[in-house]
Amino acid sequence: MSTHRHANVHLFYRDEYVYDALEEGLRHTFDVERPRRVRNALVGAGLVSSADFVAAPAVSDAQLALVHTSDYIAAIKHPQTLARYLLLDPAHPWDHRLLESLLYASGGTIAAARMALAEHTIAVNFGGGFHHAQADKAEGFCAIADVAIAVRQLRGDGELERVLIVDLDYHHGNGNALIFAGDENVFTYSLHNAPWCFLEKRNNADVMLPARADDTEYLGALRDTLPPVLQRFRPDLAVYLAGADPFVEDTLGDARVSEQGMLERDRFVTGLLHERGIPMAVVMAGGYGPSSWKIYRNYFGWLLSAGAGGGA
Ligand SMILES: [Zn+2]
User: What residues are neighbours of ligand 1 (ion), with CB under 5 Å?
Assistant: First the structure.
């Protein structure tokens, strides 16, 4: 395997992802600095230079309209409405930067997916993965269905047919599942603690975890259920929602996956896709509390160093 894999891993980040205006109470749950923290840690470790990060454009209105209704798009442009949708404190004086941070993070998802597909490699967006958002509504802190928009955009470009969404955020990826409920060319796989919706669809897999799953239970469920998906569905692209909220230190999730177990998870998914030659776009998705960022540092650090050939 290559020890110079880092040349092929593309990274998308810009400072607009970080909108540091949350009220104190929420700052403990949402580490809004997380993307920057992960970037700085990787730069500090000498794995990458800050010039290696690509600043993608924000998602446009036309791109929002690939998934969202026009009424919904108009509504989220009002900062107070968007704040309400995101369950933020309505008393706070929100401004346009709240939406802007989401538009840029979503634009990064499109750019990462496009890059992964074009270069047949791995591309990482240091944000995105808003998997509860739906055509006409926000849910679970998610307002823009960035992954679904990316899929529709690339298909519109004629670059893409079949997509596998591997959603390992601790919560059900119900938004993407519902958006693609009638589309068998998008396989939605979600490993989660509780169902948020039920689908009658061939190319959908909802895998329920036992309560407070430990490394053995969590990794066992993943190893039992994800490889069979790839036996029968051959995607042109995989989008991996590498949510950190199964981590034992997560302040919202109740799973007990260790830091090492989380890295093992990410390596397993990466290796599985790599050995089948499937390009992969990675997005951050959920992960709460002050230590969530470490999970991404570990994974992306591994991608950037020797291991991303899949076998290390
Ligand atoms: Zn989550």
Answer: 169-171, 245, 286
